[in-house]
């Protein structure tokens, strides 16, 4: 039945609607979402049935980056389904740290929704994860079992076949014109778009971007993590491109990216770039340096010359940022004063954060790192006391531009927070105690 219904679909939207409707029925779920995954970011395409609960409405309207959702990262990287349970088959809450409960972030989300269980299966099209089918089961009801996962995977495979059929033209373009790692346009398309923009006679801007911190990430965390970082950069540029209609985001090669705009003023392009980069920081303490060249400044020039001008501006911005970070390194301070400032900034950040342990710990880590003049911060968790910690979220600024730094590790239960510190920041027992207290407030206050 599902195969016949999907075979009649003539658009991606129809495939998403049919797949969600069928999954709702065969999985006995409260609601099912069919999502699209691009540049490691998940966005909901369809949800069945239309949600009434405002908590669910907010969740499905949000977009999720794989850096913030470990289960999504696993689904993308391993092309594997996952399940998570907030309640047992006896309708009792699962124990904190129970390895059979699944990913802690997904379990916490289920608890916020007062739901029993969730599962997600990847929709793999032409060897790449195109999207996912995600189902949630409510009380009263049993957790999802292995046979439910099998049904979801069969349906995901049928949906993938339908998508491949109706999206053939886009697939051909992807093979010819897109960068295979990030899904952005490649250098050839960027050159062609720049030439067309210049021929139009409208103001043309080229933004050249470079990733600060990629080498460090490759050396310390491996090239798979480096590839994830490049996809995160692509996600940022895709968002900037969406805010500048008619523009083209492309990966030139390695850690170099560009954005080509036509008919947009340089001031508007600069504003969008600054706002987008600020709103979506890169993981692992990496950052984007960029420079802009515009025909409003250079006059009539060739595309190659405009690219060179933007590249020169990018390197100037990179050097200026390095000088700013070095100048901003705080002098050694009194430990008592430092502890007080950490407590004030951390408490304010926790109070302003969204509900849930992870958002509160992230807010605390970011505020403490900024106060202590550090670079990167991270929030990690363990399934049990004997397991190694796994990163839930990371953030901050690059640490490889000549600024010496260190890391303070704070552990509360199964949670671990790594706070970046300048080499000149005050340390000592009183500062460590303030960090421990803030971690406890973030975790215990979220329950």
Automatic annotation (TrEMBL):
Protein name per UniProt: GGDEF domain-containing protein
Pfam families, sorted: GAF, GGDEF
Highest taxon of the lineage: Bacteria
Domain called GGDEF: residue spans: 202-330
InterPro entries named in the record: Diguanylate_Cyclase, GAF, GAF-like_dom_sf, GGDEF_dom, Nucleotide_cyclase, Rev_trsase/Diguanyl_cyclase
CDD domains per record: GGDEF (cd01949)
Entries under PROSITE patterns matching the protein: GGDEF
């Amino acid at each position: 039945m599902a195969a016949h219904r999907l075979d009649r679909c003539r658009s991606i939207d129809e495939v998403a609607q049919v797949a969600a409707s069928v999954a709702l029925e065969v999985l006995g779920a409260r609601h099912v979402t069919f999502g699209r995954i691009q540049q490691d970011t998940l966005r909901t395409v369809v949800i069945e049935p239309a949600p009434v609960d405002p908590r669910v409405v907010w969740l499905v309207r949000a977009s999720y980056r794989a850096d913030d959702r470990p289960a999504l990262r696993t689904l993308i990287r391993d092309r594997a389904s996952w399940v998570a349970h907030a309640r047992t088959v006896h309708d009792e809450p699962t124990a904190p740290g129970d390895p059979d409960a699944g990913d802690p972030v997904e379990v916490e989300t289920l608890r916020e929704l007062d739901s029993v269980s969730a599962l997600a299966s990847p929709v793999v099209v032409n060897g790449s994860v195109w999207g996912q089918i995600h189902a949630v089961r409510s009380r009263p009801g049993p957790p999802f079992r292995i046979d439910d996962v099998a049904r979801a995977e069969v349906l995901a495979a049928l949906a993938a076949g339908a998508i491949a059929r109706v999206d053939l033209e886009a697939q051909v373009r992807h093979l010819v014109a897109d960068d295979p790692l990030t899904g952005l346009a490649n250098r050839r398309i960027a050159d062609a778009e720049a030439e067309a923009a210049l021929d139009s006679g409208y103001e043309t801007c080229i933004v050249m971007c470079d990733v600060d911190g990629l080498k460090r990430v490759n050396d310390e965390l491996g090239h798979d993590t480096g590839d994830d970082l490049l996809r995160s950069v692509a996600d940022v540029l895709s968002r900037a491109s969406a805010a500048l209609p008619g523009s083209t985001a492309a990966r030139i090669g390695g850690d170099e990216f560009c954005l080509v705009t036509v008919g947009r003023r340089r001031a508007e392009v600069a504003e969008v770039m600054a706002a987008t980069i600020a709103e979506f920081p890169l993981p692992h303490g990496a950052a984007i340096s960029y420079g802009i060249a515009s025909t409003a400044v250079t006059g009539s020039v060739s595309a190659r010359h405009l690219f060179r001008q933007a590249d020169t501006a990018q390197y100037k911005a990179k050097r200026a940022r390095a000088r700013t970070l070095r100048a901003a390194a705080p002098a050694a301070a009194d430990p008592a004063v430092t502890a007080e400032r950490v407590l004030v900034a951390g408490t304010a950040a926790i109070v302003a954060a969204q509900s849930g342990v992870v958002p509160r710990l992230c807010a605390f880590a970011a505020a403490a790192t900024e106060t202590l003049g550090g670079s990167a911060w991270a929030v990690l968790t363990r399934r049990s006391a004997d397991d190694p910690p796994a990163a839930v979220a990371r953030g901050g600024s690059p640490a490889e531009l000549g600024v010496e730094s260190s890391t303070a590790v704070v552990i509360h239960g199964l949670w671990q927070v790594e706070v970046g510190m300048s080499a000149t920041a005050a340390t000592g027992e009183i500062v460590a105690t303030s960090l421990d207290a803030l971690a406890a407030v973030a975790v215990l206050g979220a329950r």
